[in-house]
# Entry
Amino acid sequence: MTTRRFPLLANPPITEGLLDVRVGLRSDVGLETLARFGDAVGGDYPNRRERYSFAGAFQFGVPTAASSVSSQTRIDGYVFTSENAVRVVQARLDGFTLSLLKPYPGFDVLEREAMRLWELYCQVAQPQRVVRIALRYINRIVLPLPFKDFREYLLTIPEIAPNAPQALAQFTMQLVLPDDQDNANVAIITEVLEPGRPDATEITIVLDIDAFQQVNIAPGSTELWDRVVSLRDYKNRIFFSSITPKCRSLFE
# Structure
């Protein structure tokens, strides 16, 4: 599948890029099976730790009784980290994740390494189906102060009522956007203005783009990687549509 060309940034603001694949495993696949994945990747990812999942539920009694919360944690897989801690791979009972941290080396590296490790995960865990694919990028955009309007840099920004105070000290905004060009794609966009000091010369905005598809495909199908390319295209359309040329110049 071909993808639309976007500008190649010399200094992208990406602090983490990750590919996540959720799967259905056979009921007899357990943690001891996933541990063998660590043996297979141990030369490149020598540091291992257990991964815990958390589940909580509210329980309501009779109207005169207070509600209560029950919670449970369990080990659902392992996290393997490279020696320099910039590459992290997860092997879980519900799937596989590869994260590349800053300095982000580019999508080609992420895709190539993900394909290599996914093949090892499939050999060990033998997933039955792929049920969800996600491509997520966390960007930290540092803007120099002073400026008059966030829209000098960002086009996706909270709208303040005209008669309300216009200064923004901190905000968190989340949007869920289905793709108008490929209805399989959906993105969760989270934008956060981090609090700063009064004497700060710059501010930081986190732009988190999590693009995903709910799927039902065979683990060994090349369709998996075609869909990853589609998600990358959608992620890039969102990112470059959300920033102005002035903002883009900060990364060139």
